[in-house]
Amino acid sequence: MEARLPSTKIMRKIKFDKGEFYHIFNRGADKRKIFADQDDWRRFFQSMCEFNTLNPIGSIYEKTFGGSASKSPKKLKREKKLVNFICYCLNPNHYHFILEQVADRGIEKFIHRLATGYTRYFNDKHRRSGVLFQGKFKAIHIKTNEYLLHLSAYVNLNYKVHNFGGRASKKSMSSWDEYVGKKERNKHAFCKKNIILGQFRKKNDYKEFAENALAGILERKEYLKDLEE
User: Directed axis angle between helix 38-50 and helix 106-125, to 10°?
Assistant: First the structure.
């Protein structure tokens, strides 16, 4: 299957429907870093877990700074969610999510909570003020299964797209290990992976597909770069 991604035309007025999949992404204002160290990555990921609930979350500020105890993975799993995570990648100055909306206005509510809570945490920790993210988050509706499969490769392996090195854990954080890693490392799985992995006989088949798909994406990236130069 050829790795084809549509043009990234961003729809500001996109309509989010339950049961549909969306590519959600944003970066730091002025391309600044939004993760300065491993604690920032862990805090953002914790926010991805705790803010994804239909239940009232109380004070975002208190939650951000640990004013209330973090919920256990089991308790979080039982709560009704705003979105399902399919894939994610957190890079030094931007993030990518593939989300399935499962509640009315789930994506908008979740991203608002996430951005507000994390910005407060980041500004307090790093003694800064003002916006952290570059405006409203960007969203693209994933309309076909082919696009969903190839986009999963792009997001899971996004650290390779940006040449962050061989180990994603050092300069980025993604769901790649959750998709292709050993079962014992995925005891507390975060993503809803069956929509992707269910289309392959085994994890290694998906691993091979994703790496081949990414190779095609990178080839076109270099080709477009040559044309621009």
Answer: 150
Tens digits of per-residue pLDDT, 166-199? 444 467 899 999 999 865 445 457 999 999 999 9
Residue type, 34: I
Nearest one of 58, 64, 40, 67 to 121, comparing CA atoms: 64
Which residues fall within 8 angstroms of residue 50, CB to CB, at 6 or more apart?
Answer: 57, 63, 70, 71, 76
Asked whether residue 6 is assigned to any structural domain, the reply reads no
C-alpha to C-alpha distance for 42 and 121, rounded to whole angstroms: 12
CATH number of residue 212's parent domain: 3.30.70.1290
Sheet containing 138-142, strands listed edge to edge, beginning at the edge strand earlier in sequence: 138-142, 21-27, 94-101, 83-91, 173-174
List the structure tokens of 18: 């339950």
Q: How far apart are CA 36 and CA 186, in angstroms?
A: 26
Residue 2 lies in a domain: no
Distance separating alpha carbons of residues 172 and 161, to the nearest angstrom: 12
Residue 12, in any domain of the structure: no
pTM of the predicted model, to two decimals?
A: 0.83
Nearest Cα to 210, choosing from 170, 151, 169, 162? 151
